[in-house]
């Protein structure tokens, strides 16, 4: 099997997702691969947006649009570089996590998609599906599920 050239890892800013980022970064460093870190987000709309703007005033930009995802991505990129990844870029993607990860993997021609295992063993995850299980079923490429919990 050839070495991976482009790895995509998803993060939501949780400790377990950052553990997946770090594992993906170590693998990217060993393979000399590009690491693409992505974060899916749902933009605020309607009353939720109005409330944020009303309560936060000029600071509302911090929670509106992709701003929270961009902050998560900055942290993830820093953590990836500390693990030895050299070629790291980030992508904030609007949408639900599973379709966003699958779509982004396709768009960046990833040959490995890395996710943490959070939710994989829970009852809700077994009944309703979890991000790692759903990604593994839908990705159409190699998926590494990192033990992070």
How would you characterize this protein structure?
The chain is an alpha/beta fold. A 5-stranded parallel beta sheet has the order 3-2-1-4-5, sandwiched between helices. Helix 1 (15-31) crosses helix 3 and helix 4 (97-107) crosses helix 6 (131-138). The chain is 46% helix and 20% strand. The chain is globular. Mean pLDDT is 81; it is low at 59-64 and 120-129.
Topology overview:
Elements: E1 6-10, H1 15-31, E2 34-41, H2 46-56, H3 67-82, E3 88-94, H4 97-107, E4 112-116, H5 123-128, H6 131-138, E5 142-146
Parallel strand pairs: 1-2, 1-4, 2-3, 4-5
Task: List the keywords.
globular, alpha/beta, about 150 residues
**Sequence of strands across the biggest β-sheet:** 3-2-1-4-5
How many helical elements? 6
Secondary structure class reads alpha/beta
The proportion of residues forming helix, as a percent range, comes to 40-55%
Largest sheet: 5 strands, parallel
Cα gyration radius (Å) = 16 Å
Beta-strand proportion: 15-25%
Report the end-to-end length measured between terminal Cα atoms: 29 Å
Low-pLDDT parts are 59-64, 120-129
Tell the overall outline. globular
Mean pLDDT: 81
